[in-house]
Amino acid sequence: MNLLQRTVALVASTAVLAGGATVLAAGQASAATSEITLQNVATSRYLDSNGNGNVYTLPGNGGSYQRWYASDLGGSTFNLRNKATGFCLDSNGNGNVYTLNCNGGSYQKWVRGNGPYGHTYRNLATGLYLDSNGNGDVYALSGNGGSYQQWR
After folding, report:
1. Does an H or E element contain 110, and which?
2. What is the per-residue pLDDT across 56-87, written as a single tens digit (0 to 9) for each?
3. Environment class of residue 66 by beta-carbon count within 10 Å: exposed (0-12), middle (13-18) or buried (19+)?
4. CB 113 within 8 A of CB 130
5. In the chain, at which residue ranges do the beta strands (DSSP E only) sit?
6. pTM (2 d.p.)
7. Is 112 helix (H, G, I), strand (E, B) or coil?
8. Which of 40, 92, 107, 112 is the most buried (most CB within 10 A)?
9. Residue 19 pLDDT exceeds 50
């Protein structure tokens, strides 16, 4: 567990013990982070990655490459960091999705929305939605409301 994770855990513990009334001083970590998996609604495959920065989906295997730390940045915006690699989910205007070293930029921020079957993730910088197909490819496209753009 790194220093930021320990700080977030300590702040969260303090909030629980204090009945939720916690005031954070300037400069302290305020983002709540939770460990999640993202399963595509249409394919039932899980968002996965590797040390080379490739992102794809595979059937669930319980491995750490399929686990992500979701840091709540406020306003339904999240940063998604892969548990195994420590890289953040990133994208570009061409719709490519990959992971890179975390840099805090808007291409690594994802706005979570609610679809009829799960959550959608829209890239803050591009406005494109996290999408997938039955072959395991992951990319970003304009929002279409389809189940391939929904994750649970």
Report:
1. strand 110-114
2. 999 999 999 999 999 999 999 999 999 999 99
3. buried
4. no
5. 32-36, 46-49, 55-58, 68-74, 77-82, 88-91, 97-100, 110-114, 119-123, 129-132, 138-141
6. 0.80
7. strand
8. 40
9. no
